[in-house]
Structures are given as C-alpha cells and as structure tokens.
Amino acid sequence: MSDETADEKKMPLLDHLVELRTRLLYCVGTFVVLFLACMPLASKIYIFLMEPLYDIMKDKPNARMIFTGLPEQFLTEIKIAFFTALAISTPVLLLQIWKFVAPGLYRHEKRAFTPFLVATPVLFTTGAALVYYFIIPMAWRFFLSFEMPGGPESLAIQLEPKVNEYLSLVLALMFAFGLGFELPVFLILLARVGIVTADGLAKKRRYAIVAVFIAAAVLTPPDVISQVGLAVPLILLYEVSIYGARLIERKRAKEDAAANAAS
User: Fold this and answer.
1) pLDDT tens digit string along 20-49?
2) Residue 182 to residue 118: CA distance in whole angstroms
3) How far is the CA of 58 from the CAs of 50, 65, 71, 134, 141, in angstroms?
4) In 3D, which of 248, 250, 235 has the Cα closest to residue 205?
C-alpha cells in the first residue's frame, strides 16, 4: 500500500470490539499486577514522599506524624499503591491506546503522533519532579512558619500532620503539576490538526495568563508559593506551545508548496 492509504484493511465492528477488549484486559492486568507489587513497598514510598517534610522537621523535638482512625494508615498505603501503580502503568495504557488506534492511521499520521505519545509521560514526570524537589520544600517551610511557641498566657501551636491528609496534599500537588505540564502536548496537537494557530494563541496570550492563574489557584493549596510555582511554568509552556505551533505551520507550508510545485 502507498503512504496515503491505511496500513491495514478495515476490520469488522465485532473484530474492533474484540481488539478493544484485548487492549483493556492488557491495561487492567498490568495495573493489577503493579498494584499488588506496590503494596509491600507502600510504606517505603510514603517515606520517600515524606522526606521533604522530614528534612525540615528532623531537628524539632518530638516531631511526628499521626493518624486518628484505626484503618487510616492501612487505607493510606492502599492509596499509595493505587496511585503508584496507576502512574507506572500509564505508559502501558498509552501504548495500548496507540496499538488500537494506529491501524486506522496513515503512515505519515503515525509519524506525526508518535512524538506526542512519547512526550506525554515525560512531561508529566517532569512536572511531578518539579513539585517534589522544588515547590514542596518551599511550601512546607511556608506552612511551618505559622507555628507559634507557647507563652505564659498561650498554648503552643505546633504542626502534627495527619498521615492521610499529608498524602492527599502531596498527590494533589504532583498530579496538578503533572497535568499542567501536558499543556504543550494538548495545544500543539490542536495546532497539528488545524484547530488552533500560532497567531491565534499569541493573540489570546493575556487571556491564557489569567486562565493559568485561575487554574493554579484551583488546583493547588491556597498559598502563593504553590500557585506561582505552577503558574509560571505553565506560562512558559504556553510560549513553547506557540513556538511549536509555528514550526508545524512552517512545515505544513513547505509541504504544500512542494506539492503545488510537483503538480
């Protein structure tokens, strides 16, 4: 077949459903195996997530974390195993989606979409790493600055973080930053299919900045460090998206010019 035809013949609807079921079983099976494998490691993963707080509080006397419900620690470890397995199995999920969709695409379409398939987990991991290594330590220091020593007429105000609340906060930050870093993939993909243009994105820059700060305020805790820490990278990624859209438009213009010259 030529480059302008699908790589495989059209499949009957029943075969498509069987193929979809097979891909879903691969995804579910991978997730279940990873979940069971992560359960014995959940406590070690929690220690890793707790490390930024430990580095700040390790010199304080009687520093500790607490849980107030009998099943809280157990359910927290289940949550850790669940989200860890979900994160690790995401590339497998994307691969299975690609294998299901790819037979219906032209070869040049496959070449166009492959970079997006690779960039998605890379950008998500980059966003999660940014929040863990840079944003979280600054945010924790900010929150801990509200502790107050006791006095003759007042009680001390000290942090005793709950196990499940700490995990929920860390996961919310990591997923917010990870999803936020997918912005270039989303916008450049829209530019690739012609829904948006580089000039259109540039003209809407001021609205995008406002939307970014609103999204940062919704997705992150109510502190300036987390909100600015998410908003600034997203604005930079928006500019990267504009540049990527321009590259796509230039390449498309060259291909159209070559096709017109050949005709």
Assistant:
1) 888 889 889 999 999 999 999 999 999 999
2) 12
3) 11, 12, 26, 19, 13
4) 235
